[in-house]
Amino acid sequence: MKVTEIEHFSHRHKLELSYSQKPYRCDGCKQEGFGSCYQCNKKTKCDFHLHEKCAMADPLATHPFFNNCIFEFRKKRKHGKRCKACGKDIRGFMYKSKKAYLHPCCLKLPNTLNGEGGLILNLKDKASSKCLICRHKKISGKVKGWAYVSTCGKHCYHVGCVNHMNFENWGCFNSQQNGGNISLVFIKQESGRKKKRGCCVGCALDLIVNAILGSALQLAAGCVLGLS
Ligand SMILES: [Zn+2]
Ligand SMILES: [Zn+2]
Ligand SMILES: [Zn+2]
Ligand SMILES: [Zn+2]
């Protein structure tokens, strides 16, 4: 059972586990978020949000890509440091180690995502082929960037590119309630080029964007959540 109300060092009021149907900026890591999050009680109108993973960050963590390496949670930004996973700047909460800096949400990305029709996406520490969004193997000159690669070999997307695409071009994704789950779904564009990519691209992107934003929310019966 999840804790639905917490006290957090970063904010003076109690935070409540709720669901934001609009994109928000996490006041911890300063990255975008959507859906499930810890929010300041609405009455105070603080507009304060934390990703679940930022609110519940463990002081120490490890990651399978870094052997014998301990990551320490830090509250403060680090000038000029980039997240090894998504390639974006570190502007708030982060995990620091000798080998890399990571956003809390990036550190916790699932190793495997399972989609419909046997689609399996595995998290890799670099793209195995060109990313289908930016058309490059590296996310930028210095940063390779992690990628989700499908077992069939047809899909390869940088974690950072999916996230970027989502918010630069808001409207590509929409929230959808499906049974007991709320998640983001990719809206297929009618323009010729995007259509040709095929429907499976949409399925793959849905999986990744929900993993990145931590948005998928299980609405368990009896669980009190503020759905507004
Ligand atoms: Zn965050
Ligand atoms: Zn508040
Ligand atoms: Zn990151
Ligand atoms: Zn890319």
Q: Care to describe what's here?
A:
- This protein has 228 residues and is α+β, with helices and mostly antiparallel strands.
- The protein has three domains: 5-55; 65-107, no CATH class; 112-217, no CATH class.
- The chain is 17% helix and 32% strand.
- It is built from five helices and 16 strands.
- The chain has helices spanning 52-55, 104-107, 159-168, 192-196, 199-213, and strands spanning 5-6, 15-25, 32-40, 49-51, 60-63, 66-74, 94-96, 101-102, 112-114, 120-124, 147-150, 156-158, 173-178, 181-186, 217-218, 226-227.
- Strands 1, 2, 3, 4 and 16 form a five-stranded mixed sheet that branches.
- A hairpin with a 2-residue loop joins strand 13 and strand 14.
- Helix 3 packs across helix 5.
- The two termini are 22 Å apart.
- 39% of the residues are buried.
- Residues 188-199 and 217-228 have low confidence and may be disordered.
- The structure holds zinc ion (4 copies).
- One zinc ion (ZN) binds next to loops.
Can you describe this structure in just a few lines?
The chain is α+β, with helices and mostly antiparallel strands.
Layout of helices and strands:
Layout: E1 5-6, E2 15-25, E3 32-40, E4 49-51, H1 52-55, E5 60-63, E6 66-74, E7 94-96, E8 101-102, H2 104-107, E9 112-114, E10 120-124, E11 147-150, E12 156-158, H3 159-168, E13 173-178, E14 181-186, H4 192-196, H5 199-213, E15 217-218, E16 226-227
Parallel strand pairs: 2-16
Antiparallel strand pairs: 1-2, 2-3, 3-4, 5-6, 6-7, 7-8, 9-10, 10-11, 11-12, 13-14, 14-15
Helix pairs in contact: 3-5
Bound molecules: zinc ion (4 copies).
The site of one zinc ion has 7 residues, from loops.
